[in-house]
Design a protein that fits this description.
This protein is mainly alpha-helical. The chain has one domain (3-133). The chain contains 5 helices and no strands. It is elongated.
Length: 138
């Protein structure tokens, strides 16, 4: 197991999730707002609409699946170990951001709990899928 490859795999999976979620959220919020958003209060007012929160739960879970899969793929071995490490770091970052982060109060509490509860397991499922695929080829 190459430690540099392991680090790149874990950080890359986390970065992939962050970029996908941020781009999708900004795009959907901007489209739903129907134009430019003036400030963060307006942004969160649109983002916290029920249909947007539902979409956020879905696209964040899908991004986590992909992030876990890509973490395992880049790692090349011990897929679940790497996926678990990425899931742990991502879950800790979400928990910190949703409790002590600057914009934590702008996200409904139940949404924060759901995102923390869904993201790590989804990453593990993605890593598991990649691990099974790699084992089936051998």
């Amino acid at each position: 197991m190459n430690p540099v490859r392991s680090l790149v795999a874990v950080l890359g999976g986390i970065l992939l999730i962050s970029v996908l979620v941020e781009v999708l959220e900004f795009t959907l919020v901007s489209a739903r707002a129907g134009g430019a958003i003036g400030d963060m209060t307006q942004y969160f007012a649109v983002r916290n609409r029920p249909e947007m929160i539902g979409a956020k739960l879905v696209y964040t879970t899908l991004a986590a699946l992909l992030g876990g899969y890509m973490t395992a793929k880049v790692a090349g071995s011990r897929e679940m170990l790497h996926g678990g490490a990425a899931a742990l770091v991502q879950t800790a970052a979400l928990a910190w951001g949703f409790t002590a982060g600057e914009y934590a109060a702008f996200t409904p509490g139940w949404t924060r709990v759901a995102l923390v509860a869904l993201t790590g397991p989804a990453m593990l499922v993605g890593a598991s899928v990649r691990g099974r695929a790699a084992r089936s080829r051998t």
